Amino acid sequence: MKQHSPLLIFLLLLLAPFPAFxxxxxxxxxxxxxKYEGTAALTAHFEQESAIAGLGGRKQLxxxxxxxxxxxxxxxDYKLPAPQVLIxxxxxxxxxxxxxxxxxxxxxxxxLNEDLTYAFFVGKGNISKDFKxxxxxxxxxxxxxxxxxxxxxxxxxxxxxxxxxxxxAMQITHIRIVDHLQSTTDIRLSQIRLNGELxxxxxxxxxxxxxxxxxx
Length: 216
Description:
With 216 residues, the protein is mainly beta. The radius of gyration is 17 Å and the shape is globular. It has helices at residues 25-37, 108-114, 116-121, 127-130, and strands spanning 41-51, 59-69, 73-80, 84-89, 92-97, 102-107, 131-135, 146-152, 161-166, 172-178, 184-194, 212-215.
């Protein structure tokens, strides 16, 4: 996974104990879907850790902030390891790379086909329809959380499967993306705010003068 392809995402709150009964994977998926269908806007802080297969498990770390506003608006601001902005206004997706002085622009519809988490958070995806839904492997269970293993129903060039952890409020706290080479990207979310007021101007971005614009 490329570090600038954040894949969804996204939420860490106070943990409650598990209920006396265990939920089935499809029940968890339906509850998560309902939670995010009722979420019109979201902001969060994220921490990202990528481990690249074939490079001795070398890790790449990143962190920043995330904002989502339905329908179709998304913004990731990477503060570390280098400034990057990934932004979607519903029509186009733009990736600004400060170090390279470049901005890559593509159609949002094409990006939706590649970034499964983006599709979900902006209201275009459906867990039970888009994935084979299974329970979390027991050895990966996190206290106070439910977990799912999600395998795309159609072949995806970048994603073999996802692991998803949610708290008792069915808010996503941790996503692990595993690609076909077994490289992993873990995204953990905190400082989450749901349904706050977000201006549309947040999802407009003008790069600094002299930035090279690359259209895809």
